[in-house]
Amino acid sequence: MSDNSLAIRKFSDLANPTRFLALADRVLPWFAALTVLAFAAGLWLSFTTEGDYQQGETVRIMYVHVPSAWLSMMCYTLMAISALGTLVWRHPLADVSAKAAAPIGACFTFLALVTGSLWGKPMWGTWWVWDARLTSVFLLFLMYLGLMALNRAMDDPARSARVSAVLVLVGFVNIPIIKFSVEWWNTLHQPASVMRLDGPTIDPEFLWPLIIMAVGFTLLFFTLHIAAMRNEIWRRRVTSLRRQAARNAGRENLVP
Amino acid sequence: MMSLFFRDLKLSVRAGGGAMIGVLFFMTVVSVIPFGVGPDLNLLSRIGPAILWIGALLASLLGLDRLFQAEREDGSLDLMLMHETPLILTVFVKCAAHWAATGLPLVVASPFLALFMNMDEFAIGATMLTLLAGTPAITFIGAVGAAVAVALPRGGLLVSILVLPLAIPVLIFGVSAVYAAVEDPAPFLPPFMILMAITLFFAVIGPVAAAAALRHSAD
């Protein structure tokens, strides 16, 4: 068997929830340990490096703010890919992934908004401005909450997954708007300084802690996401077992 | 398709007065603002276009949950799903009828409400034009929300919550086009063109996504 077909088989093996649970049990401790290591290194670096000559100590907010903002967009992208998985390939775990990602994404978006406004008060002199970047991220937060409400509103997980997948894909329009908002409109928010075609313009002294913190946050995201997916699978099993039990109990009552 | 258009139009104009409720709500929202901010005519004429736009946006959200709900209740939605005309086209026609029944009256009512706001003729004309170009976009975005929430027993409020974030760009560019028209230095055409582009974009995306959601919520 060639490597390629083996890889495909590995991917479709994951469609079996039991196999996924076994895999999740195996990789979760590693992810958690790596997260702790990355956070330890990242936090130590971000507290020991010098403050900026202009921004002083408040520059350290960046090490939480920027990774959260990245993850808020990455999480929605992951949900959009999962939505494609639900609608196109009917992968049974895709809707579990999308549903589990929504609250985590909402948390990271909230964190980005809060740290941003904490940073904005000393730097810009105000907690909040209605500029393009802030407004579009706030709309992203509202969309996460709306998707969570939609997921809660329906009983049947299969149907709610397919319907909310449509909405996730429509809402994906917002992600490029967020990414390029600082370049399309002249706003208070600073333009991109790390993810640039001509290389990062940020000083290496700040870049390294930022990268390590970003890696730590990403690992944290995947740890939480896999754990949430596992919980969601278990919750569905419990629900179906309960339904089965209720059906059996009803049958016993009917037949004396 | 024409018969479907007129059927939907008649249903929403005659039965239950759904179309009139939108206009009444629009009037209520606009007339509440002066009580809130005070009867300062200069201030009102400055914020007038924005108030009209917000009122129109909220009023168009109000009737959205009825777009597919009644069809689902009496079973004609299943017939539409099985019909040989593409579902996307059916959804598009239903959206057009819905806009003609609820969006168009808002556009027609806006000059009269603009008088409350002490706006001059030029601003009134600009507001009407932008509303005419922008409210179809709200209907097409709303169709997605209505289709997503059609399976829910009480989806009305949820539709508004789901649709509002996506409809914000329409509001932004609608209002900025009016202000660009009223204030001389700012050019009117760029924001107006973007508004038209948003409408055309969602006229394509909206029916496709709504049809997909309807298909998936049916089985």
From TrEMBL, chain A:
Domain Cytochrome c assembly protein: 21-189
InterPro entries listed in its UniProt record: Cyt_c_assembly, Cyt_c_biogenesis_CcmC, Cyt_c_biogenesis_CcsA/CcmC
GO molecular function, one term: heme transmembrane transporter activity
Keywords for the protein's UniProt record, in alphabetical order: Cell inner membrane, Cell membrane, Cytochrome c-type biogenesis, Membrane, Transmembrane, Transmembrane helix, Transport
A Pfam cross-reference name: Cytochrom_C_asm
Chain segments annotated as transmembrane: 27-47, 67-89, 101-120, 132-151, 163-186, 206-227
Compartments, record wording: Cell inner membrane; Membrane
Membrane topology: Multi-pass membrane protein
Domain of life (superkingdom): Bacteria
Biological process, per Gene Ontology: cytochrome complex assembly
Gene Ontology cellular component terms for the protein in this record: plasma membrane
Main location as per UniProt: membrane
Protein family membership: Belongs to the CcmC/CycZ/HelC family.
NCBIfam families attached to this UniProt entry: ccmC
Role description: Required for the export of heme to the periplasm for the biogenesis of c-type cytochromes.
Protein name: Heme exporter protein C
Organism per entry: Rhizobium fredii (Sinorhizobium fredii)
From TrEMBL, chain B:
A Pfam family this chain is assigned to: CcmB
Keyword set includes Flavoprotein: no
Source organism: Rhizobium fredii
NCBIfam families: ccmB (TIGR01190)
GO terms for cellular component: plasma membrane
Lineage: Bacteria, Pseudomonadati, Pseudomonadota, Alphaproteobacteria, Hyphomicrobiales
Family from the record: Belongs to the CcmB/CycW/HelB family.
InterPro entries in alphabetical order: Cyt_c_biogenesis_CcmB, Cyt_c_CcmB_bac
GO MF annotations, alphabetized: heme transmembrane transporter activity
Highest taxon, organism lineage: Bacteria
Keywords (A to Z) from UniProt: Cell inner membrane, Cell membrane, Cytochrome c-type biogenesis, Membrane, Transmembrane, Transmembrane helix, Transport
Major localization listed first in the record, in broad terms: membrane
Location relative to the cell: Cell inner membrane
Protein name: Heme exporter protein B
Function per UniProt: Required for the export of heme to the periplasm for the biogenesis of c-type cytochromes.
Topology with respect to the bilayer: Multi-pass membrane protein
GO BP annotation list: cytochrome c biosynthetic process; cytochrome complex assembly
